[in-house]
Amino acid sequence: MRSVALTAISVIGLSGCGEKPSATPAADEQAPDTVKSSKQDDSVESTPGEAAQVTAEVAESMSQDQDTVDQNTVERQAAAHDSATRTEPALGHSNDEMRSEVFALLEQMASEAAVERRAASDALDALGLSAMPLVVTGLREGSGLQKLGAATYLIGRVSPSNTAAIDALILALADDDEPVRRAALQAVEKIAPQQLTAALPALVAFAESHNDTPAYRSRAVRAITKMGPDAVTATGSLVKLACAADDSLNVRRAAFFAIAKVAPAEQAEVFFRDQLGSEN
Fold first, then answer.
1. Which of 224, 243, 264, 276 is the most exposed place for a label (fewest CB within 10 A)?
2. pLDDT at 195
3. d(CA 265, CA 250)
4. What is the DSSP string of 8-58?
5. pTM of the prediction?
């Protein structure tokens, strides 16, 4: 099935399912989006190359055991962060004082200046685990800046046992504020796959929405891919994304790859063979 998938992605992936490739790239492929957020994204959407290049890129991805990051490393880092910050609340802090301090630091975490974010991050770490429930509260109930700061702070800091933070991040994927959604997605990407299944509906909605850039929608699809067969219920949505001729090349390329990982093997092979057959 792997060879069939690769062939289908290279032949079909540049046009709608059953359509001949268009000679004119879509608008977002002509001028790739620049990802804008207070925390710079290290993944930008590339422009399309030749079909052979697409095949080579996907082949390289499919030969790897991991889709995005080494999840064991992420879990170890989150556990280490929990251990390092397992301290008592600062002496002399009342609940109201702690809340005010944490929320002020969350606003600082939303700063565009990296030095400000680093200082706020260090200060939140120093407060220990007692600050984490307030960070989650800020993500759920805070102002726009506080939500953005909370989501940014949680990137790489959510252990599998922190279900409150995971639930809050899932809700934030549908926030009205685009920077909040993007920061939440970056945090969700680093959550262990076994905790990601609860985020599947929100990730599908994120991938399907045109309110976010193709670069971030592609990242949502890759997060779905990381779940493997546990995301089988998303197969129909992935097929629609893969076959949308008027959508972003990178979103559709990610969806083709996701189908190969998520759908049952026989169903995926039938899909790819059907697309190849429609080209003949």
1. 264
2. 84
3. 23
4. HHHHHTTS-TTSPPPSS--HHHHSPPPP--SS--S--PPPP--HHHHHHHH
5. 0.72
